[in-house]
Amino acid sequence: MSEQRLRYRAFLAVVLATLVVALAPVIVSGLLGKVLPDGLIATSDKVTTGLVTLLGTIGGLLFRRVDTGVER
């Protein structure tokens, strides 16, 4: 598998993980009608922020252009 393809898969995996972590409290409280503790919601927010940061880093690596210094 090429490096570019692996980067793309990592990018999609982080997007999926971000969506799962961000939407989990909404789904649990909305569909199940349960009240979640504030600590759990705060943890979900922190994890989502971290995953979005990681997403930006992977996106930057994925879509960057490598400058070799050689003119074509």
Automatic annotation (TrEMBL):
Keywords attached to this entry: Membrane, Transmembrane, Transmembrane helix
Membrane-spanning intervals of the chain: 12-32, 47-63
Domain of life: Bacteria
Entry annotated with the keyword Transmembrane: yes
UniProt protein name: Holin
Organism placement in taxonomy: Bacteria, Pseudomonadati, Pseudomonadota, Alphaproteobacteria, Sphingomonadales
